[in-house]
């Protein structure tokens, strides 16, 4: 059993690309898809449940109502997981923590029943708080079901997170796999708690078909690869 990626190895003296003066990796992926601006989060609309109650009632939900999610609600969930508070020359401070403020993730969503959006795969751009259309695959529901090993549970939207490993490797060589995994947990827990504010729920998915997920999102599986999924719906 190889546990090396779980061990603390901060004593290793590995010079990073940051220390070598390498250019800072791009903070978000460039994409030229059809733009869909999101409403600015109306925080006053999401104050009907307190944090203590959200934590105590947090559950993994696998059954969802046949009810659409509004664009405002979707915008809230996206902001709650990767929204930006502040930008810095070497990163950003967001709603979920990340080692060294590297934030290695890209947020894709498979949309099935969101008011104001056609079915398809979209990419969230946190700096602009907007969605870009990536593709409109045929039989998207069935493709998601196969890629997620039969999971997805007919949710109106499925979050599909990829990692761009070099964003973290640039600062933390030798430690990147562990840090990306830790950051993914922070990210998804924010989604769990944010869902409570819209009478919704989610269920983290770590068991998926890597090649099918990467192909569905159009990523190469090396410089960018699927790492986590989470269907979201009303409960």
Automatic annotation (TrEMBL):
Q: Where is the Nitroreductase domain?
A: 55-234
Q: Which InterPro entries match?
A: Bacteriocin_Proc_Enz, Nitroreductase, Nitroreductase-like, SagB-type_dehydrogenase
CDD domains named in the record:
McbC_SagB-like_oxidoreductase
Q: Name one GO molecular function term.
A: oxidoreductase activity
Q: Where, by residue number, does the polypeptide cross the bilayer?
A: none
Report which superkingdom the organism of origin falls in. Bacteria
Q: Which NCBIfam families match?
A: antibiot_sagB
Q: What is this protein called?
A: Nitroreductase domain-containing protein
